[in-house]
Write a structure and sequence with these properties.
It is a single chain. The chain is α/β, with parallel strands linked by helices and 260 residues long. The protein has one domain: Rossmann fold, CATH 3.40.50. The protein has a seven-stranded parallel beta sheet with strand order 3-2-1-4-5-6-7, sandwiched between helices. The longest helix has 29 residues.
Length: 260
């Protein structure tokens, strides 16, 4: 089976590093023209563009803060002008914030996590769906997390925002389905990236993490990226209004494998 996205225009927010970069590269490898959304540091975006070009793909970089409604609107206007009307939006930009128990957290920092993860996803979906519903086609895929379901002490803003994006996904899917547009989410588990290197490179911390994963290993960026590509393609044409978990079984509560 060949996943073909030829002629499709895609935007991947947070597309210059980590999982976002992997998604951008996978979409481009399947034929899509990809816009890579980045916040401020142009160098990783340029590195991603170079990798896509070297593989024969087409991509551009768009600077914009997803938490800023005006910046998102400007980013979509640039996308319209440079590549054309959007077919695929992947909301991957996100932050987890600084660990703090809820009663010790700084409210401004808490709100910033929600602004990026929840409001950022909404601002981008708001722009994309206006275009997609008018053309009666398109796909929005939101990257959430296993923590849309699993509580995580010290990260109440992150878990709350990811759970909220899950319900946002369902509602947007319900609204846009009559217009031929799909909206779904993908929830990664523990994926090996630079952002969590402190855990997977620590001989003491890694075993604790792995015992939470029935498959006994961390996931790889390519596994998430290629699954996203499948889901936004015609192969996933009957999937909408739900979250697909790619977590090695983490949400299967492996501690209960030996009884309750």
């Amino acid at each position: 089976m060949k996943i073909a996205l030829d002629g499709k225009i895609a935007l991947v927010t947070g597309g210059s590093t980590g999982i976002g970069r992997g998604i951008a590269e996978s979409l481009a490898a399947s034929g899509a023209s990809v816009a890579i959304g980045y916040l401020s540091d142009r160098a990783p975006a340029d590195a991603t563009l170079a990798a896509i070009a070297a593989a024969g793909g087409r991509a551009i970089a768009l600077k914009g803060d997803v938490a800023d409604e005006a910046a998102v609107r400007a980013m979509f206007e640039q996308l319209d002008a440079l590549l054309g009307p959007i077919d695929i939006l992947v909301n991957c930009a996100g932050i987890d914030g600084r660990a703090a128990l809820s009663w010790e957290a700084e409210p401004a920092a808490w709100k910033n996590v929600v602004a990026v993860n929840l409001f950022g996803s909404f601002h981008c979906a708001h722009q994309a769906l206006a275009r997609m519903t008018a053309r009666r086609r398109g796909v929005v895929l939101n990257i959430t997390s296993v923590h849309e379901t699993i509580a995580w002490s010290g990260y109440s803003a992150y878990t709350a925002s990811k759970a909220a994006v899950s319900m946002l996904t369902k509602t947007l899917a319900q609204e846009s389905a009559p217009f031929g547009v799909r909206v779904l989410a993908l929830a990664p588990g523990a994926i090996q990236t630079a952002i969590n290197q402190a855990v997977w490179s620590d001989p003491a911390a890694l075993p604790d993490l792995l015992q939470k994963i029935p498959l006994g290993r961390m996931g790889q960026v390519k596994e998430i990226a290629d699954l996203v590509t499948v889901l936004v393609s015609d192969v996933g044409s009957y999937v909408t209004g739900t979250t697909v978990f790619a977590d090695g079984g983490m949400t299967d509560y492996p501690d209960f494998a030996h009884g309750g």
